Structures are given as C-alpha cells and as structure tokens.
Amino acid sequence: MPLTAKELENLTPEDAGRKLSDGDGLHGLVRVSKGGVMSVLFRWRFRHGGKSHDYTCGTWKKGVSLPSIRKQRDAAAAILATGKNPNEERKLSKEQAAAGQKAELAQIEAQKAALRTFTDALSSWYESKEITDRRDGGEYLKRAIAKDVLPKLKGVALTDLTKSMVADILHDVAKRAPVMANRLHASLNQFFRYCCDEREWMTKNPLDGTKRAKIGGKEEPRERTLCDPANPEKHELKELREAMERAKLIDSTKAALWIMLGTACRIGEVTQARWADVDLERGVWTIPPENSKNGKTHTVSLSAFALRHFKTLHEISGGRSEWVLPSSSRNAKKGSGPVCVKSINKQINDRQRETPMKGRSKATGSLCLSGGHWTPHDLRRTAATIMGQCGVLSEIIERCLNHVESSKLKRTYQRQEPRQQMREAWDLLGLRVETLLSDENVSVVNFNNRAA
Q: Quick one: DSSP state of residue 323?
C-alpha cells in the first residue's frame, strides 16, 4: 500500500536504516541526522537496457510533500516510456542548464567588459599583488601613468583600446623624455598582460609587436664619472666644490652629495636615512631593507670624510627631527617626514639648465662641470672608480655598493661578510677624496699595500 504522510511523520530515530515501500517501484530509506531530524530518501527502481537502475526522486522531510516525490517518479517513468534512461536524461539536462548558465554569465561579462574603462582596469591592477608588493607600492608607476596616460585614456572602454592609441601616447612622451617613454612601455605592457592573461578582459595586448627601441630608442648605460678612470690625478672634484658654492646650494644638500661620494650609496638611501640608523660615535650607518634597492640590510663604515658630513647634517637639524634630511616643504609639518627623494636631483638638474623653469632655481648653469652633465648617481659611480684606483678588489667594491652577487651558487654558499676589507675600502675612498680636494699632490694609496 502507498505510504501516508502520517506514517512518515510518526517515524522515530529507532527506524533509522529501515526501508519503506510506496508501490510502483518507489522505495525509501529512513535516515536520522545528528540532531535527531528524520528524513527519507526516495528512489525509483526501473529497468533499462536489460539492467536495473535507481532514480533519485528526492528526500522527504519537513516542508517536502510526498506527492511532489511521486511526481518525480511519474516524470521519470514518462521518460522511460520513450525508451530513454531517466538518469542519463537528467544528467544531460543538468549539463545543458550549466552550459546555458555559463553562456549567460559570459554574456554578462561581455557586457561588463564593454562598459569597463581603462581607469577601472587600472584601479584593479593597482590593487594586485604585482603592484602592492613593490617597494614603493607602485607610487612611481602611478605618478607616471597619471601624468602621461590617464588624461588621454581615462574614459576609454578597455575593449576599444587600439595599438595606435597607446603608441601615440608613448611616441609623444618619447619626444621630451625617451627613457620615460621606455619605462611607460614596460609598465603598460605588464598592465595589458594582466588584463589579457589574468583577468581575460581583453583578447589581445595592444602593445604586442611594439619594441621600446623604436619608441624611446636603445638605452645606453651612463658612464659619467667625475674622475678619469685612466688617470687617477685627473678629476673634477675641486671643480664640483667650487660649483656648489657658486650655485648657492643649501648646506644640507652639499653634505648629502659629499656623503654619496664618500659612501658610494644611492640618493634614496641618503634622503630616507633616520638618525636612529646612524651611530656617530662608532662611525656606522645601517641602511634598513626598506631603504636599500635589493631589500637587504647594508651596513656602511663611515670614513672620517663621510662622518664629518653626517655631523654637519646633525648640526643643521639640531636633533629636532628623526630624519637625517628632514622635509622643509611648506605643505609639510616641520619634521614630519624626510625630504622628497627627487628634491636633490631637481636642485642639481635645475642648475645645469640653459634656461630656468618656472618657479625653480634661477642659478642656471652654475653646476655645469667641464666633463658635461652630471647627476647625483654619477657620484656613486665615481666612488666605485676611485676605490678601484686605490687597488680595492672588484668583489669588495661590489659589496660596498650593496650589489647582489650575480652568481646564484656564490649567493647560496658563500655567506661570509668581508667586513674588514669593506671598512678599509671606505676608509681609502674617504682618504682619497680628501686628498683630491686638497691642494697637496699626493699619489694614490694602494689597497693591497695598505692591507699588507
């Protein structure tokens, strides 16, 4: 006899595992949950292709009626009457439904893509790990794109972007700043790969087939030094000192430049330095990982020359700031942060221009040297060259520059720090710079002879 709703409602946990028959091949298995809730799983037994099969018709429980389960059985029986397997038809129906849903989602995504602008996609990229993991959080990249790219592509739909639209922007930038055009090309290439490969918002990278060499041109590494690599006695250091006075550079900028020359450190490492990292008594400057280019702590032994200029900076700040070079911007609170990393570069470049820029230094040409245009980074290259002229081994110079060892094998197994040799190298550098700036004619001190 067919089951009744009352029979099902009267089931108890003791009935768990019991099999119930509703007739016409429909049978149920009594189950009980951990919380004591009763349910019955119903299946319909049928034959197809000479074999017996079970078709799941649903589970009876609170809120599910027995007639609805029988309707499932009747629908399956109707399919069987046509000669088809109800289980296979159910599977096919699910696959078709999934395919339809997928197609619908694809259509929705296509509609979204048509509305997604360059700016929308850019915002998503800025939040990706690729950008957030950069040491500056992508700030340099964002400034460059905001200045030269966003004004022209801000409201453009991502799917409407063409190669010519992007290339036109890069070629315009190349007319005034070839190197920046190349940097933008590399950054936009990464962005479009993100849109194509990771997000599938685009089917093709607009920059495919373009080369930086044909936009900003091939970049030659700078070789400018303020000393003649072939002649240790020929240099521009005295000329530099005189130019600094003529250019009326502020004392903190002059001290920072001499520190760069005396330590072979980068301008960003100097401008971001804190007094907490400088031990004036021991003559040691520790550059933390967040300030070094390779993300590793770099300990610099300060020569008498470099230490003197650090003390000059300490006298200037008067201990009122945690920063070695505190900001003096009118828009910043006094002592609220370090000087902008671009500040010194701007001061040097402005004083080597032919005509002044609006709102900038009028002392044009005052920092020009006989060897041609120079940058603060050239002082680092000059320091390395002077070390080499003093006989310091190239391996020690590389350590003083905090360069990453190119050999992975050496990086893995040779973990020692040649601290003594590095200290002597910095001392020789400071001594040699002092000598070149003096009026006395003293020959180059050789590192190997000194070590002996």
A: B
Structure tokens at 262: 């005396």
3-state secondary structure (DSSP) of residue 292: coil
- What does DSSP assign to residue 194? I
CATH class of 118-214: mainly alpha
pLDDT in tens, 1-59: 789 989 999 999 999 999 999 998 999 999 999 888 999 999 999 999 999 999 999 99
Cα distance between residue 78 and residue 41, in whole Å: 21
Contact 193, 148 (CB under 8 A): no
- Report residue 267 as tokens: 């301008």
Superfamily of the domain at 228-451:
Intergrase catalytic core (1.10.443.10)
| Distance from the first to the final alpha carbon of the chain | 109
Cβ partners under 8 Å of residue 188, min gap 6: 145, 149, 166, 170, 207
Instruction: Let me know: does 385 contact 227? Beta carbons within 8 Å.
Output: yes
d(CA 248, CA 361): 10
Q: At what angle do helices 178-193 and 163-176 cross, to 10 degrees?
A: 150
366: which residues sit within 8 A by CB, 6+ positions away?
243, 246, 247, 248, 351
Beta bridge partners of 31: 39
Q: In sequence order, what are the beta bridge partners of 19?
A: 29
- Map tokens 């029988």 to a residue: 70
Q: Are 219 and 179 in contact (CB under 8 A)?
A: yes
Q: What is the pTM of this model?
A: 0.64
What pLDDT is stored for residue 218 in this prediction?
Answer: 81
Domain 5-93 bears CATH identifier 3.30.160.390:
yes
Identity of the residue numbered 61: K
